[in-house]
Fold this protein.
Amino acid sequence: MKKFTCCLKISLISASCLFLCSFSDPESMEQCASYLQKTFTDHYDSSQESDRIKRYELNVTNNGFCRYKRYFNNGKTEYFAFKLSKFKDVDYYGTTTAGKLYIHTRGDDVIVQTYKDRGGDVDSMATQIIIPLKNIEAEDLNLIRDNLNKINAEVSILQKP
């Protein structure tokens, strides 16, 4: 009987620890997405395209999407979107003062839509999004990659049956 009671106590303690640990994720997908949103907003370099772009929208959502929309002075609009679970890697070309961040996906996973273009409205797919950045350090770029990888891993786990 003592053996059964001891095993029961161990089972209950480990089950309660497992239950409590499942709710103690120190960095959730929402925190990673909010970090990415803040970093992209703080370091976005509109001066690289200021002669052509009227305004832009860049959003990283809590449900695992990255959306980037550019409104041109001539009325044209470009829209890029991809699911963060399709993230592959990032590259940065430039200096700490100014450069471009290339966010690569596994395949043709970036939705590209253009509106009010001379050639008409076009829907296509791409393998990357290019975001102009300024005043960014190597540590920031590493944190961007780490947060994208964390979101990718979390979304991938949630999507498995």
